[in-house]
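Lab notebook, bench 4. The sequencing result for the construct came back, and we need a structural model before the next group meeting so we can plan mutations. Quick request posted to the team channel:

Model the 3D structure of this chain.
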Amino acid sequence: MENYVRYQVNNGIGVIEFFTAQHNSLPSAILKELANTVTIAGGDASCKVLILQSGGAKTFCAGASFDELLQITTEAEGLEFFSGFAHVINAMRTCPKFIIGRVQGKAIGGGVGLASSCDYTFGTLDASIKLSELAVGIGPFVVGPAVERKIGLSAAYELAIDATGFRSAQWAQEKGLYASVHSDITSMDAAILNLATTLAASSPAAMAEIKAAFWSGTEHWNELLLSRAAISGRLILTAEARVFLEGFKKK
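Done. Here's the predicted structure in token form:
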């Protein structure tokens, strides 16, 4: 299947689904389309609440596209690529609609950032998480503020340091990333539909005000996340990062 971002609305419930064949990893084109689609949904009067999900039944999101990371040769190119994550996170936090996250499988790197940027996130028992950036030779700079806001500084720091180990879905729920964890996708989807249906019948003005209040204090993220993207853009050119990426290329 070809990569895609799809958006549809039924009975006031908007669904944004993204997919790439490489374990739902995110190239710049998909990042740009995701940010634009979230912005469009935010201004769509027919959409009362949003669900963010990925295609397939396995990995939710494997983070940055390694194929595209291999193509970066300058700091400017690195900044442009990692800014894609910044734009998605900023679109999600400023969207006036509640965003429900549907995490059906592993979330890695930028995938943890997406899950953390949702307002209410569901996971399955298979939805373990890992911030793998340090193992690549960079760091979770762009997604870091969203992850820290969601699970706290100590837990976020733990993930950033242990960049090769997964944390279970139960661990993620205990830290506040997942509001609930379900045994399988079917039961998770039923719970998501129940919440989304309730929210679709709720006051749009009240929900927008609640979201704005709970995201208060992040107004500087437009600048912060771009400055963090510049750090990742510089580090991806270091010898350590290139060795890792070349090793990945040979697999």
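Residues 4-185 form a domain with the 2-enoyl-CoA Hydratase; Chain A, domain 1 fold (CATH 3.90.226.10).
Will bring this to the meeting.
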